[in-house]
Amino acid sequence: MTPPTTNTRPLDIDAMRTSADCLLAEDAEAPSPEELETLTLQLRGHLMLTIPEVETAALALPADSESRACSIFCVGEARLRLSGEPGRTLPARIAHAQRLARSVRVLCDHYEYEDHRCPSAPERAAYLRMLEHYPECPACRTAGDQEEGTGLCSTGDRLHQEYRQARRGPGMQPGRPRPEAVGD
User: Fold this and answer.
1) How far apart are CA 13 and CA 11, in angstroms?
2) From CA 49, how far away is CA 18, in angstroms rounded?
3) For the segment 15-61, what is each residue's pLDDT rounded down to a tens digit?
4) For labelling alongside 39, which of 6, 12, 23, 104 has CA 20 to 30 A away?
5) Helix (H, G, I), strand (E, B) or coil at 26
6) pLDDT by residue (tens digit) across 110-151?
7) Helix, strand, coil share of the chain (percent; to 5)
8) What single DSSP character describes residue 138?
9) Residues 6 or more apart from 152 whose CB is under 8 A from it?
10) Domain boundaries, the chain
């Protein structure tokens, strides 16, 4: 994405990716507890710097853009990960840091490439369209927690079907297994 003007200095994307790779690279060794603490704090700092930059740039994209929807979804996911607490055991703390690292990595992608789309971008975009529609629609709000459409709102039913199709992926048929998402 084109870096917005909210920050006077550009983000050091290379340093951020290097921090993330310490935990996510195939040949990465498990860090010591002290190294993990330092790395976790670095990753949290990277997210705190990157989130507002990516969000600002995403909001400048067209409202119906998959890249915008994916960026906003990834920002939300990063915020959730920032609010999470690491576990008490070393493996739980490593897993927490790895989740932070994945968010750093994907936000770096969104920051660098305006048209970046995560492998699950179509699914995320369809999901966000449902989230925007359902709370505003009286018919959808009264439908309850039913999985299938109710027929009360043709727009809600259409959005639900688009989301189900996006989850299947392009060219997927109902009943076929869904391919695993890669990346974040």
Assistant:
1) 6
2) 16
3) 999 999 999 988 888 889 999 999 999 999 999 999 999 999 999 99
4) 6
5) coil
6) 999 877 777 776 777 777 777 778 778 887 766 555 545 455
7) 60, 0, 40
8) H
9) 139, 140, 142, 143
10) 13-112, 121-168
Contact 117, 67 (CB under 8 A): yes
Q: Of 100, 75, 73, which Cα lies nearest the Cα of 85?
A: 100
- Tokens coding 83: 């609010």
Residue scoring higher pLDDT (9 or 135): 135
Please report where in the chains the tokens 């704090």 appear, as a residue.
41
Alpha-carbon distance values, 15 to 28, 57, 119 (Å):
16, 21, 24
Q: Check: CB of residue 114 under 8 Å from CB of residue 61.
A: yes
Place of tokens 């310490």: 22
